[in-house]
TrEMBL record:
Keyword terms: ATP-binding, GTP-binding, Hydrolase, Nucleotide-binding
Molecular function terms from GO: ATP binding; GTP binding; hydrolase activity
Lineage per the UniProt record: Bacteria, Bacillati, Actinomycetota, Actinomycetes, Kitasatosporales
Region (Disordered): 1-21
Organism: Streptomyces bauhiniae
Name of this chain's protein: ATP-binding protein
Similarity remark: Belongs to the GPN-loop GTPase family.
InterPro entries for the chain: Gliding_Motility_GTPase, Gpn, P-loop_NTPase
């Protein structure tokens, strides 16, 4: 049987120019963005990523009624079912790979895989649903993943002094807690920089292995 060039499978396109890893990059770090349902994980990854983010959002159906807690996110029509993925260059040499976890509790079984190899985490918090954060932080502590807490600024969410939130979340004094607007790239980037500074301090003290 004759084979013609026209019979060949179409070439698989490579990454777009803007999505290629910078040649100057010397180190890559895996970071996870975690939190309860609707706290802004997908938005944060999308706002700060320098490449087109990968999302696994699916339309919410009635199957989740009575199972998923969507308090404060009643207008949300899609949810992450696997992960979000993005990338940001912190410096010319340091690149962060960002993995956003699914927020609905029935998908939390995926978290253990996403936590593997993660150097640190950002825990996004909604002050309307602080109780959800305890399970999130507990899972990170069980896996030994250092984290900071970022309070996402929802327009209708109550605002509290940082130290009051620290007490309510029972956070150790050394764990940073910051305010963040995940819709703004600069704010999300500053949050990631806070995490990197925290990880650096842990490494210098010998607490990060």
């Amino acid at each position: 049987m004759d084979f013609n060039a026209s019979d060949a499978a179409p070439a698989i396109p490579g990454p777009r120019t803007e999505e290629r890893l910078p040649q100057s990059a010397q180190a890559a770090v895996k970071i996870v963005i975690v939190g309860g349902f609707g706290v802004g994980k997908t938005t944060m990854v999308g706002s700060v990523s320098e490449i087109r983010p990968l999302t696994t959002e699916e339309t919410m159906t009635q199957a989740g009624i009575g199972i998923d807690d969507n308090y404060g996110s009643e207008t949300k029509t899609a949810t992450t079912v696997a992960m979000d993925f993005g990338r940001i260059s912190i410096t010319e040499k340091l690149v962060l790979y960002l993995f956003g976890t699914p927020g609905q509790e029935r998908f939390w079984f995926l978290w253990n895989r996403l936590f593997e190899g993660a150097l640190g985490a950002v825990v996004l918090v909604d002050t309307r649903r602080l109780d959800v954060s305890f399970d999130v932080m507990g899972r990170l502590e069980e896996r030994g993943v250092p984290f900071i807490v970022a309070v996402n600024s929802f327009p209708d969410a109550p605002r509290h002094p940082i130290e009051e939130l620290r007490g309510a979340l029972d956070l150790a004094p050394e764990i940073p807690i910051v305010e963040c607007d995940v819709r703004r790239r600069a704010s999300s980037r500053d949050t990631l920089l806070t995490l990197m500074h925290f990880l650096h301090s842990l490494a210098r003290s010998g607490a990060l292995t």
